[in-house]
Amino acid sequence: MVGKLNYSKWDNLELSDDSDIEVHPNVDKSSFIRWKQRDIHEKREMRKIRRSQLEAEHRTNEAVTPLLTALCKQTDEEGAATYSREVSRLAAGRQARGNKDGPDGPTLEDILLSLLLQINEEPNVKKAHGTSDLDAALTTSMKSHLIKIEKRQSEISSELAEMDEEDAHKITSDSLRDGWNSGHVSKEKPSPIPENKAAKTSQHIETLNPGALAGSAAPSAPPSKDDSDDEEVPSVTPTMKSFASLPSSIASLPLSAESLPADFLSSKRLDLSAFEKMFQFIGSHKELLHPQYGTTDALLMQAFESQMAGQKALARMCTEKALLIQYCLKLGRDGVSLFFQRMMNTDGKAAVLFLNDVLATYTRIAQRAKALREQQQENSEGVEQIQLMAQDPGTVISFDIPEGPPPEKIRLEGEGVEHLDANEVREWLQRRWDIYMSFDEDFREALASKNLDKVNEVLGRMPVSKAEVIVQDLDRAGILNFSSTEVRDETHA
User: Which of 189, 197, 303, 420 could form a disulfide with 315 if both were Cys (CB 3.0 to 4.6 A apart)?
Assistant: First the structure.
């Protein structure tokens, strides 16, 4: 009997065959593929965020429903006084906390209090205040909200089921598992070193990543475009960008530093709180450690692109986070714990080894970027430029620049905001402001003028690679807008 292989499971695997992609002659093909990959990863991240929101809302509704049901029953039996006592109790509890949310956001009691205050303001309840109809009005309103919650729970379950069904038809790195592979790591118990013998071991240097100091294993600057055409470069996801943006442990050092100064530890310039924030972030985003995610390669490439664009501080931060993930993976199963324990060790020797590796790697990236910029300038001979031009004569290019950073608290109003999260909106506005402030001052002045000629004049003075990144950032931040001047006839016969 000859068995047949079922290949249908591969029908939903999205492949990227360079030969099947057709792009405009003026668009670099490898850049287009990289942008496409980045778009896929960003959409996947947004789906994860949406799923997390739905699951959190479902859990909250499940917890609130029995509390509201019990209060509704008690109010029906004992009257409106019960309802008033519960509102007073919840309000007093929140006031005792200084009218602030809990460490993880609004507590369950805060959510219930908000709902009860909302019921108090409903027209039928306000109209019944001071009358014998108040008991019935409160009970009716609470029952109505219970029905709405039940309906919303059904909608959430349906949407989650649709997402599960859609995910089941896709093969992504998140669904990959390592099969037919097992490993065993035997850990040798370290022998304690007596204090009186410490001087005799001064020639032994402990390294976090033994291969990191060897020339053959040291991470090198990303290859040039010509060297990487045949390799798929992992795309930087929003999670990676957030990780890279965390404060650096060596922010006090100049960007030109190729190694730590001799008095680095005695001067106490190592920011341990930065390591703590990185540790907490990795704990909440363990996908950064998945080999399929390609965090190290993606962040090193982002470091190179940022350096090419003149964003030197961001480039070094990306380098630091890229090597941090690499070290954690090299240290084995408990690599994350081992790495951060050694980083925050009081003697700081392990931190010196790691940070010197970061500085050396960033220096190589900076040198490679500088050489490539000079080569591009020689080849272009000042002719090649990036300019913003509309292909359609009826299209107008305009610029919508942010007025400043977002406020601490944002209130969403109007139609279509029911599915928006205020915190996410604030994060988006903050990213938009950060992108705008990352531009050079002369370019920000050109944008503020909202004059296309002035913007193109500044773009024309930039290296092509930097101008390309700037245009991408303009689009990402929603600063670059295209509008049509055509008058559309939307009348109907």
Answer: 303
